[in-house]
Batch of 4 targets.
Target 1
Amino acid sequence: MFTGRSLVVAITIGVIALILLGKLFLIQVTDDSYLRKAEQNAIQRVVDHPYRGLVYDRNNSLLVFNDPVFDLMVIPKDFSLKDTSRFCNLFGIEKDYLIENFTAAKNYSWVKPSPLIKQISKEDFAKVQDFLIDYKGLFVMTRSVRSYPRSSAANVLGYIGEISRSQLSRDSSRYYVQGDYVGHSGIESYYEPELRGKKGVKYKLVNVRGIEKGAFKNGDLDTLSIPGETLISTIDLNLQLYGEQLMQGKRGSVVAIEPKTGEILSIISAPTYDPNLLTGAKFSQNYSVLNSDQEKPLFNRPIMATYPPGSIFKIVQSLVGLQEGILTPNTTFACNKALVNCHNHPSPVNLFGAIRNSCNPYYHQAFRQVINQEVSSNTYIDTQIGLDKWREAVLKFGLNNRLGVDMYGEKGGSIPSSGLYDKIYGKGRWKYSTIYSLSIGQGEMLVTPLQMANLAAIFANKGYYYTPHVIKAINDDPSRIPEGFKVKRDSGIDAKHFDLIQNAMVEALSGTATRAIIKGIEIAGKTGTAQNPAGEDHSVFIAFAPKDDPKIAIAVYVENAGWGGRAAASTASLLIEKYLTGEIKRPELAEYVLKGDFIY
Amino acid sequence: MRQKDTNLHKIDWLTTGLYFALVFIGWLNIYAAVYDEQNATSIFDFSLNSGKQLVWIGTAILLIIIIMVADYRLFHNLSLVLYAIFVLLLFLTPFIGKEINGQRAWFEIGAFRLQPAEFTKFATALALAKVMESPSFDLSKLKDQMKAVGVIVLPIALILLQPDTGTAMVYSAFFIMLYREGMPQRYYVIGLALVGLTILTLAIENNLYLFGSIGVVILMLIGMSKKSWQNAIIFVFLGCIMAVYALSLDYVVEKLPEHQQNRIMVLFDPDVDPLGVGWNVTQSKIAIGSGGLFGKGYLEGTQTKFDFVPEQHTDFIFCTLGEEFGWIGSFVMIALFVALLLRLVFLAERQKTRFSRVYGYCVVSLLLFHFAINIAMTIGLFPVVGIPLPFFSYGGSSLWSFTILLFIFIKLDSNRIQILGRSY
C-alpha cells in the first residue's frame, strides 16, 4: 500500500503512536505513584473527633463533660485588616500574637484555613460573634474541651493534653497523630481507651484552591466518630467536696473506701487545684504555674506519697501476733518506758488495753516475741527468719506492693526485708534491737494513704478486701470494670481475731481521739503520729463505721499536723458523719478543722 | 453540470466518520473537564464550555457543507489569494490584535475572537500545493527548495512577532510533506542529528561524558567508513563542530532567564520547580497517571475537574481522557488518530494531481504534528507549548481551522477523477 517515502511517513506515524502509548503505559499502568499523588491532591482526609466520654459520680452527678470552644480560622488569601487595633481589642489579643499566628497561617497555606485564635470560650465568643461578618476570610470551627462543673477531684480525674512525642512513638496501634489529646493522669489516662471513643474519617474532595467539592465516592468510605463511653465513678461527689473543703490549707490525703466493695468514695490530695485550670487555651500557662508550685498540687498524694504508718500499724501487729498464736487476748506486758517512750496510762495492759492506749512498750515486747521465736540459737539468724516470716504475713495486707488502683503513678511503699537490713548493716550484724521501731509502725516502713485506708477496710471486713478502685461501671455496665477489682482478697487473718480488735478500736476513740466520737454512730478508729525528723510530726487516723455494718473505711493523713488525735481524727469523723448522715451536726468541730492551718 | 461536480457520493466516509468520532469524544471530554458535581448542569448548557463547543461543532458542520457544495476548483484558484489575505492579517495582528497573556494573536470582531494564525495553516497548505503543483517543480534543486521554504517561513516570521512560539513551531510540520515530495534526505539526517545532540547536551550535565559520547560516535563512524585519511579528518572535524555546538548551546541556555531554563530542564527532571514551570507538567502527569489501566470512569476524574491541571479544556484536554478512561481510553483515542492519519496518507497517495497530493500531505503533516506534540507535552515528553489537540480541544478557531483543513482535502479527494480530466 505504502511505498518509498510514503512508507517512511506511515512508519513515522506508527512509531510516534507507539512512543506515546509506551510512555502512557509507564505512567498509567506500571507507576502507581501518580494515583497516590492525585489522592493527595484532591482527597482531603478530615478527621471527625469524637466526644470524649463523660464521668459521673456514684450518685449520677456529673464530674466531667465537654464544653464547646471555638477556634477562629483564617483563610489568608481572603483576610485583610483595615483596623488592626480594633480587631485586637475586640478579640482581646495582643497585636504581636495576631501577627505571629497570621504569619504561621500564611506559611502553612495561602488558601487553606488555619487557626488564628484558638479555643475562644463560649462566653467570649458570644461577645464577638456579631462582629465576625465584618471580616472576610474568617470562620469558626467548634471543638470541645473538658469541663468540670464542680471544680472537684482534680487528682482523680486527671487532665488531658496534647500527646507527647514519646507517647506517640509507643502507640503501636497507630491510632494517634500529632496534636491529638490524650489523658495524662488520673481516670483520663487510665481509662483513655474507653473515654476517647473512636475517630471518624470523612474523605472530601477539594479543588486546587482547597475548596470543598463534595464527598469522595459519595461518602461510602467515610466513618462516623463514635463518642467515648460514659464512666460511673465510685466517688461520692458530696463527700469529695466536703473533704476538699476540710483539707484546705493543709498538706495531706484523705481516702475513704466502701469496705465491702473496695470502691473509693473519696480520695483527696491536698493542696489540690481547680481542674478547669488545665483545660482549653490557658493549659500550658497554668500547667507551668502548677508544676512549679512548691506545694506540688499536681502530686497525687493518696497514691504517690509514702509515709511511716505510725501507731495505726499496731493493729496489723496485733493481728499477725494473734494469727501466729504468739499473742492471745490475755497476753500482758508492762508499759516499760525504758524500752520505748510512751504516754501515761494504766500498766500493765493486755492486748485490748494496748490498742486502746496505743502502748508503745507493749508492742516493743510483743513484736520481739513474733520476731524471735527461738527457732535458731543464733539470735541474728533467728531475727532474720522471724522477720521474713512476719513480712510474709504483713504483705498480705496489701503492703509493700502497689494495690493496683485504677490510676497511674501509684507507689507500693515498702515493708523492709531481711535483705534490706543485710544491705544496711551487713549480713548477721543486725538483730531485734536494730529493727524494733517496726513494732510501732516506724523505721524503714512506708505506706501510702491508700494502703492505710485499705487497712481500715480489712479491719472493717474482718480479714478481706477488694482492690480499691475509682470506677464502678463503664457505660452502665458494672461487669466491664477491670477483672482485678472483682476479686476478693484475703489478708490471711482469721475473722475470729477481729472482734477484739474492732472493740478495742471503738474504745480507742475515747482514749486517744475523743473528738472523733459521734453520737449514735459507733466508730472504730486508731490514731497515729508518724515521727517526722524534718519537722512537726504527721497526723494519722484510720477508722471505719458503723462498727457492726461498716459502710465506710477511711484514712486521713495530715502532714506536719502533730498528734493524730487532733487534725486527722476530727477530719475523719466529720467525713464519716457526712457520708452516713448526709449532714454535719457539729459545726464547732468543722470550724476547728477548717481553722487549723498546717502548712507552715 | 455544476451539480454533478460536487460528487457527494464520492466523499471518503471513513475519514469523515473518524473526524466525527474524534469531535464527539472531544466534546464529551470538554464536558467532563468543566463538570461540577455539586452544580451539575446538562452537557447542552450553553453557559458551559461543552455547550459552547456544541455551537462551534454546529458551525463547523455548516462549514463542511459549504466546502462540499462549493466548486472544487475554487480552492485551487483561490489558494494564493487566501494565502495573501491571511499573511496580511498576520502582519496586521501585532498592531491591531487584542493583547491576551502578553501575546497579540487574536482579532476581536464584536463578541468573536479569531486567531488568524490558526487559519493561515490551511492557507499555507493551499499555497504550498499551488507553488509545488508544476511537474517541473523539483525539490532537489536549491531554487525550488527556497520557493517552498519561503512560503513556510513567511508566516513563521510573522507569528514569531506576536510572539507565539508554539504556533510558529507548527509550520515546521510542512517538512514532513516536503520529505515526501523529494526534499533531499541529508537535511533530515542533519536535522535529526542536531535534535539528538541538543537533547544529549541538555540531558547530560557533565560535559566530559558528553564529549566522551561524541568521541565514541566519531570513532564508530571512522570504523564503519572506508578507511582513508580524508574520511578520518572529515569525521574528526565533524566531532569538533558537534563539541562546539554543544558548548555554545550550554552557554546560551545558561544565559537564558531562569524561568526559560526551567522550562527546558523540567523535561529531564520534573521536580525542577514543581510549583512554577513544572506545575503544568507535574499536574498533567498526575492526572493522566492516576487514570490507571481502565480510568476512573466518565465524570469521575478529580484532577482535571478540580482545576489541578490548568487549561484542562483547551491544550490539556488529553488529561481528562487519560484520567477518566485510563490507558485503554488513551489507546482507543490514539488508535483513532493513527487510523485517520494513515487513511489520509493513503488518500494523498491516490491523488491524481500533485496539487491534491501535496495538499493531502500538508493535512497529514499538520495533524500529526499537533497530535504528537500536544500529547507529548501532557506526559512530559516535550516542553509545554500552547498548541491544541486537533478536534478535541475547546475553541472555535481551532475546530474551524482543522475542519476546513481536513474537508478541503476530502473535497479534493472526492473530485479526484474530474481533476484528472481537466487542466488548470
Target 2
Amino acid sequence: MATIGSIAERESSSATMARARARAALIPDLLIEARHVANNVHAGWHGRKKRGVGENFWQFRPYVEGESMASIDWRRSARDDYVYIRDREWQATHLVWIWIDESPSMLFKSDLTTVSKQSRAVVLGLALAELLARSGERIGLAGLTKPVVSRHAAERIGEALSLAGPQTEFPSPLSANGRSDIVLFSDFLEDPQVIETRLASLARSGVRGHLVQIVDPVEEVFPYAGRIEFSDPETGEKITTGSAASLRDSYSGLFRAHVSAVRKAANALGWSHTLHHTDKLASQALTSLHIHLSQDRGQR
Amino acid sequence: MAGLPLAFASPWILLALGLLPLIWWLLRLTPPLPQTEAFPPLKILARLIQREETPSQSPWWLTLIRLAMAALVIFAMAGPVFNPTATRLDGEGPVLITLDNGWASGSVFKDRRATAEALIREAGETNRTVMLYATAEPAEAGVPLDPQAALLKLESIEARPLMPDHAAFAKLISAATQRQSPGSMFFLSDGLQYPGTSELATALSTGASQQEIILAPASSIMAMAGVRNDPDALSGKLVRAAAGNSVAVELTAHDNKGLPIARQTVTLAPEATEAEFRFSEPVELRNQVVRVSLDQLGNAGGVQLLDDSFRRRLVGLVSGEAGDLSQPLLSPLYYISRALAPFSDLRESTSANISTAIPELLAQGVSAVVLADIGTIPAEAGDQLSSWIEKGGMLIRFAGPRMAAAPEDPLLPVELRRGDRNLDSALSWDTPKALAPFERTSPFFGIEAPRDVTIRRQVLALQDIDLEKKTWATLEDGTPLVTATKKGSGWIVLFHTGSEASWSNLPISGTFVEMLRRVVNQSRSNPLAAADASTTLPPLRLLNGSGELGAPGPEAKPLVLEEGKTASVSFDNPPGFYGTEDGFAALNLFRVGDTLKPLDRSLFSPAAVTSNYAADAAMDIKPWLLMAAALLLALDCLAVLWIAGLVRMRMPTRPISTAALFFAIIAGGAILPATPVHAQQNGSTLEGKPVEDFSATLATRIAYVVTGDAALDDVSRAGLTGLTRFLASRTALEDSEPAAIEISTDELSFYPLIYWPISLDAPIPDAATMARVDAFMKQGGSILFDTRDQIGGVMGGTSGSPEALRLQAILSSLDIPPLQPVPPDHVLTKSFYLLSSFPGRYAGGELWVESLPAQNEQGERPVRAGDGVSSIMITSNDMAAAWAVDTNDQPLFQTIPPDPAQREYAFRVGVNIMMYVLTGNYKADQVHIPALLERLGQ
C-alpha cells in the first residue's frame, strides 16, 4: 500500500516565483497601515503627518530667512505680498521581514494535497514580497539579506533564498531594531514553550510579528489505520502503533490544542496568527495576511 | 487409527505432519510488516503513545489457525476414507452375481456396478469363475465367465428404464445353477419386489455356501404413478416403497422443448408412502406439458410423459342470442357449457359481435368451436372459420330459429330446407319423435339411445345422395338429427335441433353430455387411445436409465399398437415418445394406481446374509477436510486484514452505510424498472382512451341514423324532438335531445332505440358496420327501420318498393330472426296506450317485429311476450314525419289522410315503442296481475 505522506524535494524559489507572481496578482496593492513607521530616511509611501521629504503637498508657509530659494513656490507667492514655501509631507517606507522555514518537516507532502508545506511557504513568502514591493516597502529576508526597496525585491529575495540553501534556524533577534514587521512562515510543530520563548525574544526588539502556520491536512485529519510505523523527518525518531485508527480522535484533539497554544503565544504578544492548510488555495492565506498587515491593531 | 473406521489411500503423506513444528517456528518468526509513514507532528503523536509498540511475533491464535490449516491439508492429501469397504468373498466355486439394473437403479447404478466390480475383482484374485446376470437386460442364458470377461460384460450393463424381469431370470438361473452350483451367491437388489421376485428368490436360494443380499434402503425409492389432467389442475401421485423420513422433492413440468413450465415441491409425510401433487397452472400452460419429472431422483420411475390424450381441449362458444344473464336457462349456451365443462375447457367470447368473436376464439387456439343458433356468419369470419376447419378444427353447430330463417350457409354439413319442422304444433299430425338407436358407423355407437328424449322441432336436411353417410344420428322416422362432414382435416357437425330445451329435451338429458364428449374427442384423436387396427409408431424420443429424454438407441424398436390392447414397456419399447413430431404417443413405465413394494426378505433362504451397499457407507472425507482448510484460510485472511487495520472495527458506520447503500441500489434496481412500467400503463390507459361524448350516458336519448340526406335528417331530428316532448308531457320519461349518430363510427350501446329511416341515396353500410349493428341488437338494443314508402307502395303493400329492397340489402348480412306483423296480443299494443294499429304519417302500413313463439295451450292470457324485446322493428309509415314539430311545437307535416287524430295516434305509437323498448315484457306481466291476484284468492 502506498503511503499517505511523503517527503517532497525542496522546491527552488525560482520555480515558485511564477506561482508567487500569480498569487500576488490576485491581491490588491498592499499598503500597510503602520502606526509606527520606522524612523528612517528612505522614501516610502507612508505619510508621517508632518512636513519632510516626500512627494505629496503638505502646506504653504511663509518664507523664513535662510531657507533655500529653490523651495519658494513662486506661483503661490505671486498672489499676495508674502513669499511662500511649499512644504511636502514626510513620507517613509515600512520595513517588513520575511522568514520562511525550510526544515525537513516542511518538506512533507501528503496524498491529499499537491504541494509540500515548504513549497507553499515559499510561494506565500515571495507573493508577499511581490505585493510589498509593489507598495514600495522595504523587504528583507530575516537572517539572510539586508532590507531593500526595489520593484524587483521579490526576485532578489528569491535569488537569495535559492543561493542560501535551506533555512532551518529560527531567526535571531533582528539587527534592525524595532518598528518593523516580521512575517514567519512555518509549521510550528515544536513544543509550544519553545515557540513561545523564541517569539518573546523576537518581540523584545519591538518588532510586530505575523505567524503563518502551514499545515498539511493529513496532520490534522490523521487518516491512518492499521499497523503503522511513523517516523519523524526531523529527528528520524520512529513510533509504531498497532491500530492507528483508534488514535484518530485523541490525536486530532491534541493537534487542535497545539495549534491553539501557538495562536495563544502569538496573541499574547499582540501578533497575528494564520492557520493555512496546503490543500487550500495560497491566495486565501495571502488575503488574511493582507488583512492582518494592513490592520491597525491599536497597540503601542 | 485403530479405534476409528478410518483408512488412508496414501498414508505415507501423513509423515509430513512432522513438518508442523518447523512451520510453527517459521510462523512465529515473521510478524506482520507495519506500514511506514513519514509524519512530521510525531512529537504530538508521541504524547499519545508512550511506549514504542513493536510486536516481534504474530498472535498465538493466528499461528494456531495456520498450523491447523497445514495439518488439515496434509490429512486431506493422505486421502482418508471413513468406513472403508472390507473384503467379503469367501468359499469356493463359481460366484453367482445377480444385479438389478431396472429403473430404480437409475442414478445410483454407478455404485451398484462398483460393488459388483469389487466382487468380480475379488473373484479374480482367488481365480473363481463368475456367473453374472443383470435382470433388466434381455433374458439370455449365460455361462460362467472368467473374471476378465465378466468385467467386460459388466462394463456393457447400464441402468435401463424398465422393470426387472425377475420371473424370466429365475428360470435361467435355476437352469444354470443345476448345471454348476455356485459357491457364493450375491443378489445386488434395488430394494424392490417385482412380480417374479419370489421365483427368483427360490432360484437363488439353492446351494451356495455364502449367500448375501445387498439391499438399498426402500424408503429412498420413489416413483411417479400416473398423471391426470383434471379440469383445474394437472395432478398425480408420488409413491415410495416404504415409509421413512419426511422428504421434500421438487417436481418440474417441462414443455416439448424441454423448458420448465412449472415447478413445485412435494413433501412426503414421515409415515406416508404416497403424496399427491397438483400443478394448478392455467390450462393453456398445462396443455403444453409433455413431461413431469422428479428432479433429484435421476431415474426413469420419476418421469411421466404426457401426449395429446392428456390435453384438455379448448372449446369456444358463440351464441346468436342476446347475452341475457338474467335468464340463463334460456341461453342457448347454458346446456352446452354444462355438458362440456367436465372434460374440456370453455372459452366464451367476450364480444357479442360474431365477426370479432370468432377470430378472438380462434386466436386462443381452441380445438372446437360451438355455434349455437347462428343463422348467418359474416363473410370474413366465415372464411377464417373454414380455413381453421381445413387445418383440423371442429365446428359444432346447433339449429335454432335464426338458422331456420337463414339463407344458404357453406359451413353446414348438409343443405338445409328453409324453415323448421315443428312436430308438436297445432297444425302437425305428428307427435314429438324419439331418437333411433345409433348406427355402428356412428361415433355415437355404444351410447344407448334414450327413450325419454323427444325432439319437438328441428331443421330438415335436403335429400342428398350421401346424406346417409353424413348422418351420425337419426330420429325414429329416419330424419337426420346429427349430421357431420369432413372438411380438410377438420369436421363440421350439425345438431339439427336447438341447444336449449325449447326445441327438444335432448340438452337436458345425460345422453347429450356423452354425445358432446364423443364429438369433442373426435376433434383431435390420439393414436394410442383410438387405434383402429394395429398401428406402428416409430420411436421418437426415449427415456434412458437416468430419466432423461434422448434420441432412441439402437435397441429401440417401433411400437406396435393392436386394437383393444394397451401398449406396455419392454426392452424393445422403453418408455418414451413414439410417433412423429406432429403426433406422438407417450409410453409410461408407471400408470395411475401403481404402487411400489419393498423386497420381502423372508422370500430368501434364512442362510442368506443381508447387507447394505458398501459405497453407501464408505465416505471420502478428503473434500470436507479441504473445505475446512479453505474456511480457515478465509478466516486467516480476515484476521490479517483486521490486524492490518483494513477492516475498520472502530468505525462500523462506514461499512454498514456502504452495505446499506449497496442493498439499496440492488433493491432500487429491482423496484425501479417496475415503477415506470406502471406509470406507462396508467398513462396509456388515460391517453389511449378516445375522448367520448359521455353526455349520451347521462340521460336517455333516442338516436337516429344520419343518412347523409340533409332533408331527411332534419325530419328525423324534428320527429324525435317532437316525440321526446310528447314523452315528457305524457309520461314519466324525460328524455333529452335526440342524438344523431353515424352508424359506422359512433358507439351505439348508449341508446335504447335507434330510428333508422331508409334512404335510397344513403350507401349500404359495409360489413364491419353491420357487425356492429348486429352486436348492438344482440346486446339488447332495438332498431326501428322506417322505409317511409307506404304511400308509394304497390297496392298498399311494400314488398316490391325500392326502399324495401334497399332494406333487404342492408339486412342481408344481419342475423335476423323470423318476423311477423304485430299480433293483437303483442305487448306493443298495451305497453302504455292501448293501440290496435300503428300509424305514422301514413296509416296503412304494418309494424313488423320478431315473431313470438307459437301460442300454446295457454291461450287464455290477454297478452303474449317473448323473453326479450324485439331487437328489430320495421315500419313503412314514416313515423318521424308524423312526430316532427318545429320550435313552436307546431307539426311540420300534414298527415295522410289529413286527420289530427292520426297524429295523436302516431305519437302514442312512439310512446308505446319507447315504453316497450325500455321496460320489455314488464307490461306483459303487469296485465296478468288481476289473474295472478285471482289465483292467490283475493
Target 3
Amino acid sequence: MPLKAVIISNGIEGLEQLYRSNEEIHYDIVEVDENFNPNLDPYDILIAPNGTDHIALYRIKEKILQFLDQGKTLFCFDGWFTNWVPGNRWVMDNSKKTIDVRYKIQEDPFGLSRHFSVDDLTFSHGISGWWSCGFIEPAENASVLIEDTWGRALVVIDDTTTNGTMILSASGPLADVSYGTTDDNKAYQAMTDLYKAILQFVQTSKVETA
Amino acid sequence: MSLKIGMIFNGVWSHYAFAKATKYRDLYELIYVHDLSQEMLDKVDALVIPFQSNHKAIAKKKELIYAFLKSGKKMFVEGDSSANWLDATWEDRPVNNYWWVKDPNNPPVSETDYNHPIYQGLKPRHAFWHYHGVYTKVPDHASIIQKNIDGDIVSWETNHYGGTLFATTLDPIVEHGVQQITHLDNYCDKLTDWLVGVKPEGRFEILHEDYGVSA
C-alpha cells in the first residue's frame, strides 16, 4: 500500500510540480482558504512545504496534535514561527555569516545518512548556507540528524514528543523535485536523496508498526 | 501618528521576519490575507504584497485592493505568479542566484530607470540581485522601470488606478527577511522611503522572542 500524504498549499506558484505521486506515495493537495479545516483522517503524512502558511496551521494545531497522536507523521520543511509543532521551536537568526555555514551529521540512529551526501547539500554553485535558514530548538529527546557549523539543529527527527513522528528541517526545502532553489546537480541530488531516505524511513516504520 | 505600511501576508516566515525586524517593525503592519478587510486597510497608508503571496486569496479581495489604490495611495507588488487580479501577464523563468559568483560585474538586468525614487542613488548590484519570472504583458499606461538582458519586463509602474502601483518580479522583502543577501537594506530603505517618506534606521535585528509565538 502506498503512503498517503496531504500537502498544505499556500497558493504559491509551482507547488504541484514538486511532489510526484508514485508507487510508494500518493499526494493530495489541500489549499488554505478562509475556512481552512482539512480532514486529516485519510492520511499517513501531513506535509508543510517550504512557503507554508503558519497562521493557518497554528489555527488547527490541536487537530495536528491529534493526527500525530494517532501514530502518524508530520513533515515540516519550513520556518514555523508560530507554535504549532509540538515540542520543537524554529528560530530565525542572522548572527552567523552564510559563508561559514557547513552541514554535518550529528546523530543518525535510523541510518539515513547512508543515502545522501551532507557535503553536497552544503554548497550550491560554491555558495554555502543556501539551503536552510535559522535553526531548530529541538524537543528534549528528539534526534538531530543534521547540525550546522555551530552545532545548531537543522534537521530533527522526533518520535518521542507525541505518539507519531515529526521530521523537521530549518526551512530547508525537501521534495521529489527541486524547489528551483538550486540547479547545482550535486546539491539537487543531495536534496532529493535526503527526501527519498526520509520517505523510506517512514515506509519502513509503518510496516514495522503494522 | 507615524505612517504605516500594510504588508498583506499569507503566513510565510520571511514576510514575518522582515516585518518583525527591529529596523522595520514600527513601520510595517502584517495583514493576514484571509482576514483582510476594509477596516484593516483604512489603518495603513501604503501597501506591499511580497513574493510568495497567495494570489488566489488576494484575487478574491481585489475590489478592496483597487479601492485602496483609488484613494491615491501607493502599492508595491512583488509579482511572482499568474496573479489574475493584475492587468498584466507573468511568466516563469529560471532563477539565477549565482551570477555574482561567476560574473559579479554583470548583473543580468540590462536596463534600469535610475530616475525612479526607489532606484535613485542605488548601485547596479543594489538595484538587482535576481528575479522570479518576467512580465510578458503590462498595461498600455505602464512605465517600464527595469528590463532583463533579454528585453523582458522585470519592473513597471502605473498611476492609472488613482494611486501608484509598482510591480516587480524582484523579491526584496522576502530576501531581506531571509537575510542571505547582505545589501538589501539599500533597496528596502529606499522602498520604505518611497512608500511613506520615512527612511528606516538601525540594524536588521531579529528578536528571539518573536519566534515560537501564538497567532
Target 4
Amino acid sequence: MGQSKRRIAKLLILLVVLVIISLTGLGCVSGLQPIGWSGGTVSGDTFFVGSKEGRLVAINVIDEGRQWSEAIKAPAQGGGFGCLPTAGAGCGTGSAGVAIYGTPVVADGLVYIGGYNGKVYAYNSVSLEVRWVYPREDYLEPIVGGLVAAGGKVCFGSSDGMVYALDAANGEKQWEFATGDKVWSTPSVDGSVLFVGSFDGKLYALNMADGSLKWEFTTEGSVAAAPLVDGDTVYIGSFDRHLYALDAATGAMKWKFMGENWFWARPAVYGNTVYAGCLDGKVYALNAANGGKLAEFDLGSPVSSSPVLSDGAIIFAAREGGIYRLNVSSNELGLLADIGEEVYGPISGHNGIVYIHTQDLSLNRVNANTGAVLMPISLAIKD
Amino acid sequence: MNPWELIIQQPVINILIVMSHYLADNFGLAIIALTIIVNVIILPLTLKQMRASKAMQELQPKIAELQKKYAKDKQKLAQEQMLLYKESGMSPAGCVLPMLVQMPVWIAVYQSVMLSLAVAPEGLLNLSRYLYPWPVVYSMLPLANDFLWLNLAKPDVFLAILVGATMWLQQKMATPMSADPRQAAQSRMMLWMMPLMFTLLAMSFPSGLALFWVTSSIARIVMQYYVSGWGGLAPMFARESSAGDRKYTRLISQSEDRSQDDVGADIVVSGEETAKGDRGSGYLPKPSSTRYQPGRDRARRRRKK
C-alpha cells in the first residue's frame, strides 16, 4: 500500500511539473500583464512620474530626494495563479501595484494621474496627499492614455470608450463624450478644442466647454497615438500605418504619409519638419507642408516613445534602449547612449538631462549633449 | 525575432487575425476555427497516439499476468514484457512520441491566441512586431474581444467549468477502469487531477484561452469516440439505460466483478449480448478479440508466424 501511495505521489508531482512547464514556462508569453510606462513631468524642481509599483513619485531634481504617494488600489477581483489583466503581478513582471501608463500632469498645485484600475487621482503637489478621486466609488474601465489639464478642466479617455472632462479643483464630472471604442490616446488641447483619438479609428475634435463634437476624421485603423497640434495643423498617427496631417479647424486632410508599421508615438515638429517615430523602427522626417519624405533614420527597434526637443536636437528612444540624438539642422542621427533596458513610454527632458522611465523600476538619466549616462534613480519604495 | 517566433508564432498569429476578419470580425470564431484546423492537420498523429494507448490498455491484463508470474524475477519480467510488446506489434513509445510531437503545436497555438488577445497595453504594442505587411492585418487590430457572453480577455467561471468537464469526459473515454487496483487508483487520480488543474487555470486566464481548451477537448472527444467508442463512459451509459434492461446491467456487473476478482482470467461475452451495445461496446470488447486465454494466445500467434 505504501508503494502504491508513493507511485501516486510521484505521478502527482509529474503531473504538476508537466502542467507548470507547459503553461508557465514554455507557454508563458510576454505582454499579458499591465506593467505601465508612465513618462515624467517637471514642475519647479520636482520631477513627477508614475512608478510601476502603482505610486506617484516626486523626485527633487537638485538633491534627488524622493517622496512616494500611497499605492493606488486595484478593484477587488478573483484570480489565482494565472495572468489576470487587472493589476500587474505575475508572469515575471515583479510588480504588484496598479499599472500607470499616463504621464502625470501638474496644474495649480495639484498633480493628476490616471491608473489602469480606472480611477483618476489628484494629489497635492507638495505633500502628495490625495485631494480627490474620480469616480469616488466604483471604477471606470482601465485608463491607458494620459490626462490633459486646461481651462480649469482635466480631460482623459477610458477603455469604456468615453472621453471625460472633470472639474480640476474638485473632480466633479463636467461632461462626457462617447466614442465607438476604447480611448487610449492622450488628448491634446488647442485653445477651446480638445483632440482625442479612439480605437474606432477616428480622431475627434470636441469643444472644451461642453464636449460637443466639432468634427471627426476617420482613419482606416485604430488610433492610440496622442495628437500633436502645431499652428493650424493637427498630426495624428494610426494603426493603418499612416501619419495624417489635418486642418485643425475643419478636420480636412492635408496629407498622409505611410510607414511600415503603426504610428503609436506623438510626433514632434521643428521648423517646417515633422519628425515621426514608427513601430517599424524608423524615424521619418517629413515636410510639414506636403508630407514629402525628407529623410528616414533607422533606430533598429520600434519607436513607441514620444520624443523630446533639446537644444537644436530631438531625442528619440528606441524600444531596445538606444537613446538617439537627431540634429535638426544637419539631419544627422547619432547614438547618444544605450541604457540596455526596454523603453515603452514617453521620455522627458529638463535642464539638458533626458529622463527615461524603463521597465525595471528605475529612472535612467542621460546628458542630452554629451551622452553621459548618469546614475539611475530607483523608483522602488524600499530603496 | 527568434526562429520559434519567426517560423511558428508569426504565421499563426497572422492567420488568426485574417481568419478573424473573414469570420465576421469575430475572434472567438477564429479561435474555434483555428483549433479545429490544427486538430485536422495533426489528426494522423492524434489517431496514432489514441490507437497506441488503446492497444496498450488492451495489453494490460497480459502484463498484469506477467507481473504476477514473474514477481520475483525482474529481469525475466522485463524480457517477457518486451516480447509481449514485440509480438503485439507495438512499443510503449508509440503512445508518447506522437504526444511529444503534438506538444509544440499546441504550445504555439496557445501562445498565439494569448499574444493575439493582447490583454495588456504592452501586449498590443508587442503584437505589432509579429504582423505581416497585409493591410487587413494592420486595420483589424486590436481584435474585438466579445464572443457570445464572453469577454475573451477576461476569465469566465462557466467556461472554466466547461474546460474541466470536457477534459474529464475525454479522459474518461480514453481510460477504461483497470482491473489492477493500483492502476485503477492512478487512473482515477489522473482522471480528476488534470481537469481540476485546468479548471483552476482557466479561472485565472483570459477566457479566449479557455475557449481554445474547450474546443480542443471537444475535438479530441470526437476523435476518441472514433477510435474507442465511448470507452470508459460506456458503463455509465449502460447503467442509465438499464432501467428497462436488467439483463444488460447484470452483464456489465458480472464482467466488472470478474475482472476485479480474477486478473487475467477469461473474459467471455456472448455475441448476442454484445450486439446490444452501440459503439460504446469498445469497452465491452467483441467476443473474438476478448477471449483471452493465458498462454494460448501467444502460442497461436507464434504458429501463425
